[in-house]
Structures are given as structure tokens and as C-alpha cells.
Amino acid sequence: MRWTEMRWTHMPARVTTMAAVALFGLLATTVEALPQEARTRAREARIQEARYREARYREMTAPLALARSEVMRANVLATARLGSRSAERSAPEIPEPWIQQDPADSLYQAARQALNRGHYARSGDLFQQIRERYPRSGYVGDSYYFQALAVQRAGGSRAQERSLELLGVMLAQHPQATTRDEARALQMRIQGLLARQGNADAARQVAQQASAGCDDEDQSLRAAALSALLQMDSERAVPILREVLEDRDVCSAELRRRSIFILAQHLDEGAVDLLIDLAHRNPDPDAEVREQAVFWLSQVGGEEALAALESILQDADADEKLQEKAVFAVSQHSSPRAAEILRGYAERQGAPRAIRENAIFWLGQRGDAGASDYLRDLYGRLQDQELKERAIFSIAQTRSDANGRWLMDRVRDDGEDP
Q1: pTM, whole model, 2 decimals?
Q2: Which of 173, 306, 357, 379 makes a 20 to 30 Å CA pair with 101?
Q3: pLDDT digits (tens, 9 = 90+) for 25-47
Q4: Helix, strand, or coil here: 91?
Q5: Long-range contacts, stretch 19-23, CB < 8 angstroms, 24+ apart
Q6: Cα–Cα distance, 104 to 396 (Å, whole number)
């Protein structure tokens, strides 16, 4: 079989006993020609081999799965925190009835079902009927929020204004409603939409909430306002975001987490400098803020960002999770300098083995001849079996005659571990 026709799954699984070797040998013959017991044992061995390969593949590609989850998480945050149209339509379903024996229970269920199915006009009418027919129902306060949500999704020339009217009545007359926080967030999102359409009053309210001090009780609402402000006036929003991220003694960790994500949507030179500050020069006390800063540095080109990531990897006191994020961030840079940093970490004695494995993995993902040459050389200098196995896997990711010959040499080498 030529190397160009091979797949990594054709490589034999690790075997530990002569009995296992014999069973695998049976697979080379026609299974139907074997006695029943031998056929059964051969099938079992084949199943075990497939399970082993699947488990090893999942383990070997764990860094890629982690990276994909990070990117997916960022995309989810983007739709959830920036208030896009898709986020509005993918909002969580309306909750099940929660007030037993309430006279409006059946009406609430019908309105909820209509909203979850996308029948927005009918849902809005049914939520309004709750207030008209059962003014003392426990669902009255929350019905304003659900109706506002239905009206906004239904659309129309006055949808945003009508939604704001409903939310205003709810917050003024039913401040104890269970959906109060959701209502305020929706209110701010709508005001942001109206502000971008030129509504001066909405723009004023968004700017006022975004500029509220960190001692404000509802910092999640301020985060929503900052997101809306960034979309309508980035020059005004960015300095406020920087102020929040720099004022670590007052602003809550949750607000800083949201703010760093919002700031990442506007990665100018000043924003990059702040990310470096949060991640390394003057690390934020919150671990998630530091990790987010490192993650967003993966989206930044330039030597300054790479130098900061390298400093994190060289810091013996940096926690492993942060270093793992830093290795991924470096891997997203295509420059030769990034490859040098990954090589240095792969060879570092005393560094966490799992992260060294990640560095080797990402070198294999670069897919260039220089990376393959380096990994083949590195293999001969590695003593740790897990690291050597990771190197083999990474080398196999780049199809070339040189790599094919090298892998076959490993198969034929009696001095190698089975």
C-alpha cells in the first residue's frame, strides 16, 4: 500500500500479550474459513481494536476539540451578549407554568405554546388576555415581558416601541415579577436597536446606563448597555470598557468578563495592549478574565501579542490552564516565530506533559515540511512514551513520502516499544 493511500487508522494498535498478537494475526485470513470459536475471537479482537483506535483518536485530537469548543463558546457569547436577531429568535423557551391552581394556568400554557412554536401574534394576544380576564393572576406581572417578547419577534412598524411600552409598565407596576431582570435586558437591547436607527432618546438612555458606576447594583444591565453602545458608537464605548477592566477593585468579575468579550469585538491597538495587561503584565485577579484575554490574543497578529504569550509560557508560576490557553493562542499565529515558541515548549523539561503534548499536536497541525522535519527529529530525543506517541500522531497528519518512510521505519524497528 502506498503512503498516499494509507490512513492513520490502518496503523496497528498497541498490543501487550502474545495472545493478542495471535488474535490480530487471524484477521489477516478469511474469517469465514475459520472455526466458529476462532471467528468469534477474531471479531472480538477487531471490535476491541476499533474501540482502542477510537479512544486514542479522541485523546490525540483533544486539543482540537478544546479549541473548537472555545471558538463555539465565543460565537455563543457573541449572539447572546451582542443582541443579534439570531439571538432573539434562539432565546430559551418560555418556562413551564409555575403557579399551581392559578385561574390563568390554561391560558398561560396556550400562550407559552404559541410563543415557543413561533406563533407570535397569537401568543401576544393570549398573554394580554391573562391580564384582561384574570387581573389577579400570579402571571400578570410576567405576562408583560412575554407579550413584549412576542410583539418584538412578530415585527412590524411599531414592534420595538410597543415592546418598550409593555416593559415600561411591567417594571413600574410589577417590580417583583420573576422576569424583571430579563425584561430590563430586553428593554436595553431594544433601546440599542432604536438608537442605531437614530432615536435620540434611546441613545441617551443607553449611554447613561453604560456610564453608570461599578457600584451600581445591576452590573449585568450595564454590560448590556455597553454592548449596545459599542454597536452604535464604538469611540464612546471603548474608553468606558477600558475603565471597567482597569477598575478591578470596584467592578465585579462578572462585569469584567462581559466587558473583555465586548472589547474583543473592537480590537484596535489600545485594546490589544489592554488584553496583554490583563493576561500578563498586570494580571487580572479573576482566572476567567485572564483566560479570556489570552484566548482573544489568539485573534491578534503581531509580535507584541506573541511576545506576551511567550512570557506566559515561560512563567513558572502561571497556572496550567492559562498555559494551555496560551499554547492554543500561539498555534493560531502563522509566523515562524510562533512555530519556534511551540517547539521550545515541546522540548521544555519539567513543563506539564499534557501541555507539551498540545504543543506537539499543534505543530503537526501546521502541515508544513519544516514542522514534520522538526517532529521527526524531536521524536528521537524524547524519552516519555506518551510524548513519543503524540509525535507519531502529529507526524502522520502531514502526508508526505518522507513521513511515510519514517513511519514504516518505526514499524520495522525492533528497538521500538511494541
Answers
A1: 0.60
A2: 173
A3: 444 444 455 567 777 777 776 77
A4: coil
A5: 20/45
A6: 64
